Amino acid sequence: MERDGFQFVRKCHQCQIHSYLIHSPPLELYPMYALWPFVTCGIDVIGPIESKASNGHLFILVAIDYFTKWVEVVTFKSVTKKAMVEFVHSNIICRFGIPKIITTDNAMNLNSHLIKENCEQFKIVHRHSTPYRPKANGAVEAANKNIKKILRKMVQGSRRWHDKLPFALMGYRTTVRTPVGATPYLLVYETEVVIPAEVEIPSL
C-alpha cells in the first residue's frame, strides 16, 4: 500500500509541480517547548499575495499553536494594528483561552502599542523572532508554506482563493504532522474528524 502511494504521487502532475525544493543544507534541530495546548502561539502574515482575491484581500494572518500545530487564519485587505488585536481576541483568546506566550516577527503592525496593551491586560508574554531570520519562528513559517502549497493545488490561478481557504485549513488540520505524530484535530478535540474522502470512498 505504501509503495502504491509513492507511485501515485509520482504520477500526479500537481504534486510534482508544487513539491518542496529544498536548497538549504540540513541544520541541527532545536526543540520548541510547549507544555500544554495553546500555551505558546506564533503569529505571522502571508502576503501581499500576487493574485488578489475577488473580494480584494491580499493578506492572510496566520496563527499556530506550537503544541498541537493547530492553525487559525483570517484574510485581510491590509493587516492593520486593530485587525491584529481583533484576530488575537476572536481566534485565540475567545476560542482556546489565554496563551502564556505569543511570538511574532518585528513588523510594525504585529508590534503596536495596541498589541502591547492587550498582552499586558491578559498577562501574555510577547516575544519577537530574530530580525532577518524567519526560522526563529519556524513553526508558523512552516504552516505558511503548507497552506500556500495546498491553496496552489486547489485554486490553480483562480482569484477566489479566499473561498477555498477553509478547505485548505481542513486539509492541514486533518493531516498527521510529523513532529507530533498526530493530526492537529485529534490533539485539540481528542477525536478524529470525518473527512470528505471517507464519505466518497466507503471503507470495507
UniProtKB/TrEMBL annotation:
<dbReference type="InterPro" id="IPR036397">
    <property type="entry name" value="RNaseH_sf"/>
</dbReference>
<protein>
    <submittedName>
        <fullName>Uncharacterized protein LOC107022293</fullName>
    </submittedName>
</protein>
<dbReference type="InterPro" id="IPR012337">
    <property type="entry name" value="RNaseH-like_sf"/>
</dbReference>
<feature type="domain" description="Integrase catalytic">
    <location>
        <begin position="33"/>
        <end position="192"/>
    </location>
</feature>
<dbReference type="InterPro" id="IPR001584">
    <property type="entry name" value="Integrase_cat-core"/>
</dbReference>
<dbReference type="InterPro" id="IPR050951">
    <property type="entry name" value="Retrovirus_Pol_polyprotein"/>
</dbReference>
<dbReference type="Pfam" id="PF00665">
    <property type="entry name" value="rve"/>
</dbReference>
